[in-house]
Design goal:
This protein is mostly helical and 266 residues long. The protein has helices at residues 14-37, 48-62, 77-115, 133-148, 151-165, 175-216, 222-240, 242-262, and strands at 2-3, 8-9, 121-123, 130-132. β1 and β2 (8-9) form a beta hairpin.
Length: 266
């Protein structure tokens, strides 16, 4: 290897080369695992080569700032286990954040069914799957709010702190961290109920009112009258509840960032 400063060739043996590879390879695996799953970065519109390039860039930036990796041969059995553990850690951290966006999709589906828009399906450009248009509306709001609170910067900060809480070693996620991830899932989907509950309760009251009207005026065609009224009131309720949706989403996102760090505590 050429030493640029002294203009001489420096001999590097296999042990030094393995240590040098490990220093950058295992942090890269953890970072790549999170970038592939984390919200916004994992969108289908972001090409895989862009994610890999971003992971390489973050690795080069973070490696001088994090604890050193163990001197283990990456091609050995121990090196393979460390690689799998780092990948699981990165995916777990990204999944904890992605669940917040999944909660919005679930809340949008519940609200769409109450409004009578369950049949209105659109392709989500971030994932390439079919979701109700109300869920797509929630996803747009969530993405804008995520960028507004510098969520993409918080992801990088979480990655940097993860190497301090759980450095690269032969020990990966513990049972306590997995339990934290499960607990986060329950709290996140409770947040989905908070998002959809105002629209669901209001539209349930409207449907009860139509039920009373059908008893008082049996000849009234409620299918012709009730459906457009329910849909129009649903849009009004969604418009009024936008501040609450953003507030709940930001609260859930900060909770997810906290838990993504807690799952690393041994």
């Amino acid at each position: 290897m050429l030493d640029i400063v002294n203009g001489q060739y420096v001999k590097i043996d296999s042990i030094d080369l393995q240590a040098l590879i490990g220093v950058y390879f295992w942090p890269f695996v953890r970072i790549l695992g999170m970038i592939m799953v984390a919200p916004v970065f994992s969108a289908s519109m972001v090409l895989p080569r862009i994610r890999i390039l971003l992971s390489i860039t973050l690795t080069l930036i973070l490696v001088p700032l994090i604890p050193p990796s163990p001197p283990v041969n990456p091609l050995s059995v121990s090196g393979g286990l460390i690689t799998i553990q780092q990948l699981v850690i990165g995916i777990g951290m990204g999944f904890a954040l992605q669940m917040v966006f999944d909660a919005l999709i679930l809340g949008g589906q519940a609200a769409a069914m109450s409004m009578g828009l369950g049949f209105a399906i659109a392709v989500d450009p971030t994932r390439g799957v079919n979701v109700p248009v109300v869920s797509q509306y929630f996803m747009v709001l969530a993405t804008l709010a995520f960028l507004a609170i510098d969520g993409h910067i918080l992801i990088i900060d979480t990655l940097a702190r993860s190497f301090e809480l759980l450095p690269v070693s032969e020990s990966g996620l513990q049972l306590r961290g997995i339990n934290q991830l499960v607990y986060l899932g329950s709290s996140i989907y409770a947040g989905a109920v908070k998002i959809a509950l105002p629209a669901m309760v209001a539209l349930m009251i409207v449907n009860l009112a139509f039920g009373v009207i059908s008893r008082a005026a049996p000849t009234l065609n409620l299918f012709a009258v009730g459906f457009p009224i329910t849909m129009a009131l649903g849009f009004v309720i969604l418009m009024v509840s936008v501040p609450n949706i953003i507030k709940v989403f930001i609260s859930l996102m900060y909770t997810a960032f906290e838990h993504s760090a807690r799952i690393l505590v041994p």
